[in-house]
């Protein structure tokens, strides 16, 4: 049986996190009422003229430098001509001939090891509007709020050979853009979208097969399923002696199948020409140097530093650096608490647990590092039990309360009154004669039962080690 190799390249659209659109002053905020973030420029009205948002160039420059791209210091915009209802101008302002960035790469990590994925180019462009299909009225409506939102399109070389490599590449791009602060890369909101160009060929061949482009992919799981589905479809066609047609296909994740949308266009079909309303962009050496100096410490660098500076295991460092926002919060807390390992354990346990339970974006976590450091200090000094500390932290997480004040007000500090502890131990033992008899007979497992009763009686305000010590002392007197 013939063996086939999958060849994959990606076109990734990343929506830039500017406050205003690429060529006008309209808001880029997500979720506004339809057609409320619009003006004559982004709705393509006759006579309106675009003015380039400098922040878009700054963000694209950052993204290019972070992905090891060469920078075109002289670049310009072109018009990509096509008709579609969500494209009000009947052309899209993009970059074909002189994109801002080219010939870069990122390194990915998969089960097979490390691999470099080359980036052919990265260019700036404007987004189109959004079509909303109303099945009840049997019509389509257009929302132009997204029209003119700035994008960078990152075009890879066909270097990927599996769904695993594709997902690793997308995760690397997403993490890089989020660390840079140029995009939130929320797939569910469309601020990161990927089109998959896929072909197959026999193993050993150096000739590419006919590629198809897969659209409508809004999650990593959908992308992985689409790759496997399209691979199988193309192999089946070739095994039947039928050709693969170069076309754009739409993936239906519910049906786990795709269908043809249109024949795949080439650049000549769009009749590109330089945009006459926008002057070329000149990027100086100084601008590039200043941008390089502003690049943050990226995830891999943080992981290495956490292991070296904090003595954390590689696994801990990997988990803690997934979100730049949480990593910064962790570092501030670790500095204030003076105990990086215990801070790391708390973040990986309680912080990430609450983020997951509440379905939050990590960037939405906004409790004070000092408040968590103060709580950890109280746990370390045995002023509050670990169980009560976790309950208090839920309040810190939600409302950013001062834990020291809250613990004092609610009477949650560990009981230091040895007289109260001894009298409670004596009373609990007297009220439970049968378990007491078992304990006196040497059945040490019953000790945990009594510790639980006493902790419950004291509402978690006793130190478990102190309770065990008081219990052991009283039992030795009764033997």
TrEMBL record:
EC numbers, comma separated: 6.3.5.-
Alphabetically ordered keywords of this record: ATP-binding, Ligase, Nucleotide-binding, Protein biosynthesis
Reactions listed under catalytic activity: L-glutamyl-tRNA(Gln) + L-glutamine + ATP + H2O = L-glutaminyl-tRNA(Gln) + L-glutamate + ADP + phosphate + H(+); L-aspartyl-tRNA(Asn) + L-glutamine + ATP + H2O = L-asparaginyl-tRNA(Asn) + L-glutamate + ADP + phosphate + 2 H(+)
Alphabetical list of PROSITE patterns matching this protein: GATB
Enzyme class, broadest EC rank: ligase
Pfam families: GatB_N, GatB_Yqey
Record bears the keyword Ligase: yes
Domain Asn/Gln amidotransferase: 328-475
InterPro entries listed in its UniProt record: Asn/Gln-tRNA_amidoTrfase_suB/E (IPR017959), Asn/Gln-tRNA_Trfase_suB/E_cat (IPR006075), Asn/Gln_amidotransferase (IPR018027), Asn/Gln_tRNA_amidoTrase-B-like (IPR003789), GatB (IPR004413), GatB_C_1 (IPR042114), GatB_Yqey_C_2 (IPR023168), Gln-tRNA_amidoTrfase_suB_CS (IPR017958)
Keyword Nucleotide-binding: yes
Subunit structure as annotated in this protein's UniProt entry: Heterotrimer of A, B and C subunits.
Assigned protein family: Belongs to the GatB/GatE family. GatB subfamily.
Function: Allows the formation of correctly charged Asn-tRNA(Asn) or Gln-tRNA(Gln) through the transamidation of misacylated Asp-tRNA(Asn) or Glu-tRNA(Gln) in organisms which lack either or both of asparaginyl-tRNA or glutaminyl-tRNA synthetases. The reaction takes place in the presence of glutamine and ATP through an activated phospho-Asp-tRNA(Asn) or phospho-Glu-tRNA(Gln).
Protein name as it appears in the record: Aspartyl/glutamyl-tRNA(Asn/Gln) amidotransferase subunit B
Organism: Blautia ammoniilytica
């Amino acid at each position: 049986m013939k063996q086939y190799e999958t060849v994959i390249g990606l076109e990734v659209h990343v929506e830039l996190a500017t406050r205003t659109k690429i060529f006008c002053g309209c808001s880029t905020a997500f979720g506004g009422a339809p057609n409320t973030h619009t003006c004559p420029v982004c709705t393509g009205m006759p006579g309106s003229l675009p003015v380039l948002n400098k922040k878009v160039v700054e963000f694209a420059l950052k993204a290019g430098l972070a992905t090891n791209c060469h920078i075109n210091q002289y670049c310009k915009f072109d018009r990509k001509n096509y008709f579609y209802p969500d494209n009000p101008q009947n052309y899209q302002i993009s970059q074909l001939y002189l994109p801002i960035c080219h010939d870069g790469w990122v390194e990915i990590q998969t089960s097979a090891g490390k691999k470099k994925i080359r980036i052919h180019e990265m260019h700036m462009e404007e987004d189109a509007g959004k079509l909303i299909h109303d099945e009840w009225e049997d019509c389509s409506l257009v929302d132009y709020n997204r029209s003119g939102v700035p994008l960078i399109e990152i075009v890879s070389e066909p270097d990927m050979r599996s769904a695993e490599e594709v997902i690793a590449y997308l995760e690397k791009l997403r993490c890089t853009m989020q660390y840079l602060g140029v995009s939130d890369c929320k797939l569910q909101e469309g601020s990161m979208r990927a089109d998959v160009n896929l072909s197959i060929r026999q193993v050993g061949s150096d000739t590419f097969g006919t590629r198809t482009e897969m659209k409508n992919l809004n999650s990593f799981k959908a992308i992985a399923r689409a790759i496997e589905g399209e691979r199988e479809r193309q192999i089946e066609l070739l095994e039947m002696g039928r050709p693969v047609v170069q076309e754009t296909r739409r993936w239906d994740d519910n049906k786990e199948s795709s269908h043809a949308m249109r024949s795949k266009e080439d650049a000549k079909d769009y009749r590109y020409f330089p945009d006459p309303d926008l002057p070329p962009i000149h990027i100086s050496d100084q601008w590039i140097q200043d941008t390089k100096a502003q690049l943050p410490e990226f995830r891999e660098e943080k992981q290495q530093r956490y292991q070296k500076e904090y003595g954390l295991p590689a696994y801990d460092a990997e988990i803690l650096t997934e979100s730049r926002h949480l990593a910064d919060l962790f570092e501030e807390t670790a500095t204030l608490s003076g105990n990086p390992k215990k801070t790391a354990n708390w973040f990986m346990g309680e912080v990430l647990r609450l983020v997951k339970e509440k379905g939050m974006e990590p960037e939405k976590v906004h409790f004070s590092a000092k408040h968590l450091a103060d709580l950890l200090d109280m746990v370390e000094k045995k002023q509050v039990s670990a169980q009560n500390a976790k309950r208090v932290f839920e309040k810190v997480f939600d409302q950013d309360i001062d834990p020291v004040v809250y613990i004092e007000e609610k009477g949650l500090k560990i009981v230091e009154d040895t007289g109260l502890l001894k009298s409670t131990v004596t009373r609990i033992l007297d009220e439970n004669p049968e378990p007491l008899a078992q304990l006196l007979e040497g059945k040490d497992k019953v000790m945990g039962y009594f510790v639980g009763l006493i902790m419950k009686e004291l509402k978690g305000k006793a130190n478990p080690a102190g309770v065990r010590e008081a219990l052991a002392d009283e039992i030795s007197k009764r033997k």
